[in-house]
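Morning run. Coffee first, then this:
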Amino acid sequence: MDTVDRHRTTSPSPAVAAAEQRLYDAETALHAARQSGVDAWVAAAYDRLHETILEHDAVRSR
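And here it is:
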């Protein structure tokens, strides 16, 4: 998943930029959790990523 809009012609609003940063952070947290091999961490990271994707979609649709 690419979290950067490479064809953006304007700067994102502060809300969109913040949502994009949280999405990136959730993706990297999932990667770290998967590397750890701790199932509870992986499950929590997947849950957080899912919540963050929904939040990101909501912010972008405004």
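The chain has two helices and no strands. Good start to the day.
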